[in-house]
Each structure stands twice: as structure tokens, then as C-alpha cells.
Amino acid sequence: MIATAEPGMRRRRLGASRDDLIMRLGLGVGFLLLTLTVVAPLATLLVKAFQDRAGGFVGLANFLAYAESPALLRSLHHSLFVALLATAICVTLAFAFAWCLTRSCMPAKGLFRAVALVPILAPSLLPAISLVYLFGNQGLLKGLLFGASIYGPIGIVMGEVFWTFPHALIILLTAFATADQRLYEAAESLRAGRLRTFFAVTLPGVRYGLISAAFVVFTLVITDFGVPKVIGGHYNVLATDVYKQVIGQQNFQMGAVVGLILLVPAALAFVADRFAAGRQVALLGARSVPLAPKPSPAVDAAAALFCTAVAVVIVGIIAVAAFAASIKLWPYDLSFTLGHFDFDNVDGGGWGSYRNSLTLAGWSALLGSLFVFTLAFLVEKTRGLRWLGAATQLLALLPLAVPGIVLGLAYIFFFNAPANPLGAIYGTMAILVLNTIVHFYAVAHLTAITQLKQLDPEFETVAVSLKVPIWRSFLSVTLPVSLPTVFEIALYLFVNAMTTVSGVVFLYSPDTTLASVAVLNMDDAGDTAPAAAMALLIFTTSAAVRIVHTLVTRGLLARTQAWRRRITEAPREA
Amino acid sequence: MQTKLTRRGALLLATLTLAGAIGSGPATAATELVVYTALEADQIKAYKEGFEKQNPDITIKLVRDSTGIITARLLAEKANPQADVVWRVAATSLMLLDQEGMLDTYAPKGLEAVTANFRDPKSPPAWTGMDAWMATVAFNTVEAQKRNLPKPESWKDLAKPIYKGALVMPNPNSSGTGYLMVSSWLQLFGEAEGWKFMDALHDNMAVYTHSGSKPARMAATGEYPIGFSFEYRASSEKAKGAPIDLVFPKEGLGWDMEATAILKGSKRVEAARKLVDFSVSREANEFYAKNFAVVALPGVAKPLPHLPETIATMMIKNDFAWAAKNRERILKEWQTRYDGKSEPKS
Known about the structure:
Chain A is mostly helical. Helix content of chain A is 73%, strand content 1%. Chain A has a domain at 84-234 and 264-331: MetI-like (MetI-like fold, Orthogonal Bundle). The longest helix of chain B is centred in the N-terminal third of the chain and has 23 residues, at 2-24.
């Protein structure tokens, strides 16, 4: 932004060029599309909360009706309790893990890192099902709970910690990565002990990362309904309340009310996170020296031990799901079977659901990554119309504050309204693709922006002086150079489309049943083993796509680096 | 400028059309009948294929969920019905829909052969029954022995404190099986006594499940030793090798009929009527008889494994009109009494 400010000013004096007009137009179209797919549905949701079933305005009646039922306060209390506890545990563990990965000299860091990110590839229902097999009344390790029941807050917190761990870890790894060696050298020359250094240097250095991680985890937990649905027992939370109101009682207005309540903590977390993100940048100085950890046998061994324990738990939970999916009748008949993969005799839509999920993930990845990157390019590089860029940026980040379940509900209201000409996509694969891209838009957008900021603005300057149209330099320079980032966005969208339940649970139709929703429906009907089988299938697919992505990116990176070398060497030869 | 704009427009258009094409599936000339059903997932395939083989020009598009969900959905869509036919949904639910004026009347071919209490007394009827399903308790003998639980003989036995935390039953708001139990207890014991019984039962209940099948499956794995379910699911879990006994409490078994009806406003009435014809046919009844001990056509039913031959005599005298008329009130009362009290139990 700063880099383009000056040429932008000069340009305006000369009048906007053809390129500028094209880009402004593109930006305008992007802004309109986001308005249509983010703002308009949410506005409809807001209106619905104040209406009765017939659509008449009833003021706060729905809110009062909900506030009067003892269910609200209890669910709110439960949601906050579970989310706070899960956040505290998850962030502490992720903090320690990130520290081990960045500040110790323990072996096998790459392996530990890879294993720690594994939960992101599974739907949140998978850990919940595994926990039933581990700690349920017939659980393998039931004794470890000392008579407490896994059905309720204990199970929910355990499942959520597993599922949110990688999200916290990624943020904290980034925070730890920005350490300045000079601060540690200073601490050492001041003879500060390890502990003192930790509290005086390390902790303040990552404090914004910690805040950010805490808010992300808190939002994920309070809005997730997969885990509480499977393992919550009688323990109602807000997210399952929305589901019960909408699916169980078809009471969409009340669903909208609870959805709005759910929007509050998520929105607060969003604001706080943006604030923290803004501060984090200021910590980086131009003269910072990257920190190189020093070996220390005792510390490294402890670090390796801790990371091994975490890794064993993660692998263990996936393994339990695999076990559950492949034995005949737990716990009485432990013989091996593939029978649970015969999904045609259980709820959820059978193998067709799996194919639909692949279709959804494929389209979301392809269209989403191209659209996100193009719009991010326009936001970042368009000269003039600064307000439009800022407004688009805001809309692009807004989905971060909207829980999937709320977005899904908003999509029903908006696209199913009889007067909406876009209603034709209701009940089709298109609305699922749209919903998935929008649901996960913010992180994809931020990734694209980060990449674009790293690109040398000279590219455009050169393109302008060579009179190459902007779309051409975008297609032949910016996009190819940024291909690894585009692939990363595509992978992110693919994996999330495979695993998400909350966004799409209200939007699928008999033709577009999805694998992740099938897991939920099978579990509802008591078909736990087939549910585990389907969850495992989703996990395996995401993992396979991720491995392919890693291989492709590695090859691609080698080539882009070679290309960069030529660029830097060329002027010297000339 | 033009290029950029058309490119973007084309992309958007491609998105919508391509995705739309995926959504709508292969185009066929066949009539597509939208059918809402609460049929068990493991029975759907045979029934659907049975009908489609006889009527190759009609394909059935099924929306399956638990009885309570299907009922709520139909009521919510009252102004703009999406379904043509409600197939195999509890008769109490269909009566409720009929009271709301949502059902079309039709006398299917072969109606006269159907047992009298298996059809709407009106002529022409709004709904026709297919088979009956009834409350059955799945009792896990292995876990019961571990916990020292005696085998219950009556519903009242199950309300005794010894079974604390050992019971699971379906939530009557979502499950038809759950509702037929609640309705039967109120009819058997009277309103006041019935709710008192359920209060005691609630103290023993570990969890209320979404579907009527899940309690039998939980009992089958021993997750909880006693599951209130229905006879088909309990016997099919036993057939798979689960160590469960089927208990038929001696006060009598609550039951409901699975029935079929055509929605008013259906644009494919001809095809819908064919499905209703099929549902009362002898061939279809033979299908039902594979899974259910009591079916609509006399003489078709045959003994099923794990079920006593006298099971039909254990069914209570069910006042369907009462159960339908009071459905909303009873469910609301149940919700206030038991859904709000939500602390987890062991």
C-alpha cells in the first residue's frame, strides 16, 4: 500500500490510465460480489430474527421468548465454560509445542511439525467418535477418567483441543519465528537466567501471537457443533441449540436469534484479533537477527519427550478411528471387516456423498483460489479509489467473524427467499461451493495479500513502461510467480470443504449430500462404526491431497527459485 | 476493459452453470417424485427398487430423516410444499398433517383388502397404513451382569432406582419411536400417573438420542445396557451378534403405523398415486413382512426371528386420534420437563 502511494498520486494528476480503469472496475465487481455473498445474507438473517414464522415484524419477541427459556442461560454458560477451558488448554499445549519446534535443538522437528498439523485434515467429528471408543462406557481407557463421564464437558473439551491444536500452533509458530537474536544476547550479557529471559524476552515477544491464537481457538470452539453433537450428551451448547431449533423443530426464526447471539463472541474475537495482528507487525525491526537456538541436552530431551507425547496422542486418536472403522462389533466381536465402508445401507447418502464432497472440494479449490488471488491482487495494486480497496478488504476479512453455522443459516434465508433471482442455485452444488469459498475466504485472502506484499512493485512499473496491459502482466508474471501461494490457498479450501460440517449442514439437498454431513447423520442414527469409516475416508483424502500438494510445490519452488536467480543475475550481465 | 469484464462475467457464469449442472444431475425424461420418508436407511434400497422396477418412468427422490424432523419440515413448508408424497411416516404425524388440511385424499387400488384399522376411516382416505412398529427394549445381558442389573419385565420396573444411568431412549421431539412410547405411557397410566412415571424414568435416563435406532445400537455395543427402541432395530442388532435380549414390557407395547399420503398441491399427482397403489399392493406388503411382524394386508405377515409370534397381542389399544391431536401439547410438555434439565449423567 505504502509503496504504491506515491506513483498513485502522480498518476491521478496525469489522469487515470486504461489499466487503472480496468482494475477499478474489477475491484468494483469484486466488492459487489462480496456484498452479495457476505453482507446481504447476514442482513437477511438479522431481519429474520425480528420476524415471526409468517414474516410479520414482531420486534424483540423472539429474543424475549428465548431469554425466558432456562435453556438460553444454561447453553450460554456451557458454551463459555467449554470454550474458555479448551482455549486455555489448547493454547498452553500449542505454546509449548511451538517453543520446542523453534527454540530447542531437539531432533525430528520436521516430523513433529507434520504430525502436529494432522488434526486439521480431519472433520471435528472424528476426534469425538474416537473419544467415545477410548473413554466411553465401553472405552479402552475408561479407567483414566476415574468414573467421570466422557459425555459432556470433558469430552467436548478434549475433542476441541485436538481439533483446534494445529490452528493455534500455526499462529504461534509464526510468532516464535520473528524472534530477534540480539535481545537474547543482551539478556545473556546481563546475566539473566533462562527463566528470567523467558519471562522478559520470549513471552513479550510472542504476546500478540498468543492473543491471536487464543481468540482463534475460542471462536472455533464456541461455534463448532460437531464435537458437542457427538459427545456432548445432555450438555447443551449454543451451537447445538441452533441446530436443534433449525433441523429439529424447523424454527428458523429462533435459529436466527441464537445465531446472532453466537455472532457476538466471534465478532469480539475478530476485532481483538485484528487489533493484535496490527501490533505484531510493529515488533519487527529492519535490523533484527534471526534467532538460532543453542543445543542443551537436558532441555532438548525434555522437548523431544513432550512433543513425542503430543504426537502419540494425535496419531493415537486417528488410529482409534481407523480401528473403530474396521472391526465388526465393538467390543464383542473384534474381527476385521471392511463392511462399515458399505455406506449404502446407512444414513447420509452413501458413497454418493463422498463423490459430492470431492466435487465440492474440487470446485471450491479451483474457483476459490483464482477468485481470491485475483481480488487480492486488485485490492493490493489498484491505484486510486482507496476507499473501495479498504471496503473490499473489510468484506474479505469479515467471514472470519461469522461462524459457519450462522453463515449457512443466512444463506437459507437469503437464497431461499421467493423474490431472490439468485434462488435458482438453492439446493444445488453451486450454493455449497459459494458458501464454502465465502466461509473460508478471510484466511485465503490474507495468505494472498501476504504473498502480494512480498512481490516487488517494480514488476508493475516495468509493465507500465513497456506498455503491457495490466491483465497481461498479471497472467504472465504475477500469477506464475505466486503459483505456490495459489496452490496453498487451493489446498486450504479443498481440505476445509472436505471437513466442514457447520457451513453446509443447512444447505445440502438430497442430490448434494456430503461426506462430512453423512458422518453426523450416521452417528445420529447410532451407526458409529460407519461414521468412523466415513470420517477416516475424509481424513485420508485430505491427507493424500496434502501430500500431492507438498510434492508439486516442492518441484514448483525449485523452478521459481531458478527463475528468480536468472532475474537477479541478468542485469549484472547486461 | 471489455476483456476484463467479460472474462470475469464468464467466470461467474461458468461457476453458476457448471455447478448448477452438477447439482441437477443427469437429465432424464422420467417423472421425479419428491418423497419424504422416515424409512430405515437399511430398508430403503429394496423398497425404492421394488417400486421403480414396476414404474420405470418414475424415479423417487428421497429425503430421509427421523419422523419428528420430517413432520416439522412438512409443517414448516405448509405454505409452499416441496414434497409430493409422505412415505412411511408415523400415522399420528399424517393425522396431524391431515388436521392442518395438508393431505390430498385418494383411494388406492386394492384398498378394500387392507385391514380396517390400517387406513384412514374417511372415504376416500387421506392416508393408508403399511405396517406397524412397536416399542421394544434391548437389554444387553453381558453389561447387565457386570452391573448386576435384573432383567426388567415391565415399564414400571425400568423406573426403579436400580436402573439409574443405565437407560437410553429416543427424544420424542425428533423420533417417532420416542413419541409412540410417551403417548403409550400416557394412555396406559393416565396423564397424571404417566408423567409421574416419566419423571422417575428421567432420573434413570443416561441420554436422549436423536433417532429411534440409536438406543438399540448403544445397547448392542453395551455403551448403555438398556436401550428403548423398536422391534426391527433390536432384532437386527441381535442378528448381527450383539449380546442383547429383546424385552417386551408386560403393560403393553406402544406402537404406531407407518403410512403413506399425498400432499395437497403436488404437481405430479398421477405418479404420486402410483406410489400409494404400490404401497398397499401385496408385493409391497411382502417386502414389509420381511422386516415387520404386523403388516396392513391380512395373511401376509410371517414370524420373524427373535420376535414372539404373539407380538401383535402385546400391542396396546392405541387411540391414534388422541395421539395425533395432542402431539404438539405432549411434546411441548416433554420438552419443558426433560430437555431443560440437561446436566450430564453417568
